[in-house]
Amino acid sequence: MSAHCQLTGRKPGFGHAISHSHRRTKRRFDPNIQSKRYWLPGEGRHVRLTLSAKGIRTVDKLGIERAVARLRAQGVKV
Q1: pTM for the complete prediction?
Q2: Which of 6, 11, 17, 53 is most buried by its number of CB atoms within 10 A?
Q3: How far apart are CA 60 and CA 51, in angstroms?
Q4: Residue 64: what are its φ and ψ, rounded to 5°?
Q5: What 3-state class would DSSP assign to 66?
Q6: Which Pfam families match (predicted)?
Q7: Whole-angstrom Cα distance, residue 60 to residue 64?
Q8: Cα dist. 66→21, 32, 55, 73 in Å?
Q9: Could you read off the pLDDT of 1-31 as tens digits, one per residue?
Q10: What band does 73 get if pLDDT is binned at 50, 70 and 90?
Q11: What does pLDDT average to over the chain?
């Protein structure tokens, strides 16, 4: 599972880990990605989405029907 939110588009950020002696090494900041299963009442089936924590809150706010409609408008196969 890639660290990419289907709804919000959040991806890993890159930067430096800075030690106490101030040496810099490359690191990766991953978003909090969860795989979540939702029931689509309009289609009578479940869908599994890969969402960030903010994406889950967005689905809770909009509703799953509007969130899936937004995904399909972006061209994501659901």
Answers
A1: 0.84
A2: 6
A3: 12
A4: -70, -35
A5: helix
A6: Ribosomal_L28
A7: 7
A8: 50, 22, 13, 10
A9: 589 999 999 999 999 999 999 999 999 999 9
A10: very high
A11: 95
